[in-house]
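User: Quick sanity check before I run a bigger batch. Here is a single chain. Can you write out its predicted 3D structure?
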Amino acid sequence: MSIFGALQSGISGLAAQSSAMGAVSDNIVNVNTVGYKGTSTSFQTLVTKQTSSRLYSPGGVQPSPKQSINAQGLLSSVSSSTACAISGNGYFVVNQAANPGEGDMWAYTRAGDFDIDENGYLKNTGGFYAQGWSLLPYDGNPNATVVNINGINYMKAYYDASGNTVYINDNIVDGRNLRPVNLATIGGTATPTQQISLGANLPSSDSIYDPTNPSGGGRRTVSALIYDSLGNASNVSLTYTKESANSWGMSTTVPSGAASVVLSGKTENTGDLTSDVYAAAGQLEFSSIPANGSSISIKDAGTGKTYNFVFTNDPASVTDPDSYAVDLTDGIVSISDFTRAFAAKIKEVMPSAGRFSADGDKISIVQSTAGSALEINASKTLSCLQSAANPLPSTGIPTGIFTIPEIDQDIKNCARIDFNSTDLTAYSGKTLELDGVKYFFTSGNPLNPTVPGDCVGVDITEAVIQPAGTQVDVAKMVSILGGVINTNANEPARFVASGISLEILPSSSGGNIDINVTDLGGAINGIVRDPTTEQFKPIQNFDGTLNSSFTVNGTDIEEGSLAPAVRFNADGTPKYFFVDDMSIEWANGAQNMNNDPNHGTSIKFEMGNVGTNDGLTQLSGNFTTNYIKQDGAKFGSYSGVSIDSSGVVTALFDNGETRPIAILPLATFANPNGMESLTGNAWIETDFSGQALLKQAGTNGAGQVTSNALENSTVDLATEFSNMIVTQRAYSAATKIITTADEMLDELTRLT
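Assistant: Done. Predicted structure follows.
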């Protein structure tokens, strides 16, 4: 009967509109819920089978609610550094357990209102904990998944309870590969200095440094701040000493807390040295101003004289002619005041006093190419002396006595061969033999000798002076010769063409070089270093005859090589850099910086580029320091966190350093609307949604993370209130259907 069908339709309408009103209600009350996805209600007709063309069989209506999980709400800024939103596709991976175990449910949400709970975990208002990929410094393991953050490689890995490294598979959602983000377990940090960049002008007007006249100029000092692996700060004095018109040497001081420091570099022909260029030799480091009457003596091995420095409140009481008073009452109120006064007194009375310099709480002593060995007795000041390091194995001063060794003054050039003749016939057809290899000089007109089969040809045609064609540009010839030798010699880095001289540098690997210049006769004015006297002598006088062969000793390059730190072009720009790093042995427990596999890297110097004025220069004008930069940092405590657009969670420290600790991945689904909702504004994957695919934000179709922001709900209040009115009227209309049908049924009952 149709009246009963009408009643049924009215009831279905009431039920459908009630459902729609429920959806509207949820939408309105969740208008401020972060990441909430509004529900809309559609309706579909219930149709019954029509058995007669003259009668209508009513069916009714049923609701069809739909929640657009993949719809994005508007983003709004917030002040919290841990809050973040997703702009684009994807969901944060979360779990109701901070440390998920087997059976804990993995869920996905766009509610990024994370805050730090009482245990340090990132947790949102829905009660879900953020899960991510932990990061560690890259260890070179091929099993690691590597990510580059700000030019530094990190790997997705963490240390387990036993200290073993666990490498993360970033395609799997489980408690092994995803880890909670815990900010309560972040310790402090310190970054050792690995590079010093400096720019300065070394005045071209400076005279060549004379160690007997230290006040005559030619020496400039730059102070650089460095940090060790413990975060201790130290000042390093870098002293540039003018050695020739366009060359400056370089020396340094021992930083506080270090045992020794060594500058290393390259020879003039850019071949690597295997040992040191200059080394700071030692230091006297004071923990307090010395007591009245204490003393330090310094014996100069060159003169045999001992200089006894007495620290006193009454200088007049020091009457010994070999003793020198350091007045403790003359404006000395700090340790640095004392070291300056002490250094000034040393420079006043001792030769080669440029070796001593005041540096805060210490007197630094640098090895000198002009100075003798020093024996220092500080036993009477041990109460205020902290350390005195030297580069020998026996570092420190347990007895208060240590030695600063003398440096070999003629270490740079092992030998050289000077070509003194400009006569073409003196060379063409002649042979120079080095280490059994014969170099045969040949040229064009008027001479054109054939190169013997056992010789290496040296074509000096370009060096022949035209039009006469009988003379040679010797410097050009030597340049050609040097190029041929460097192509054929076993140790090509040892041979350098320098004007009319072929310089032969020493070899730290040992190898002596046999040289035979018999065939060249009087065209040679070479000199060789006498290994006995360490003097350079003419070849002719080495053993009394020109016609004999001689041997260049394979001399190790020792501390104090005379290779300059920098050589300048005529326009004041650098031509070569020979010093490029600094190795430090620390005595304070910090990691040594010596490039040993088990230790830290040495400190690299960046003093500009060859041929440019972006670093060191030698121009007219005053000595100026344009910039000093280093990449180390002192100890810093954890002070906050930031999250970038890639989902990288970075710990911030109060020393300005940062350290990436984790990545918040984004999960994407083939059909996100197929997920099942959970209390707390989260969803879980289903067969309809497909499996979660984890991606780093901003890659492979995943959206980006917006920090200090939250995603608002997708609810529009105006729309919801309109829907509420429409739903209310539809509900009222449905009740009218029931009322009318009831009246009709009642009337029908009375009639029957």
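The mean pLDDT is 80.

User: Great, the batch can go ahead then.
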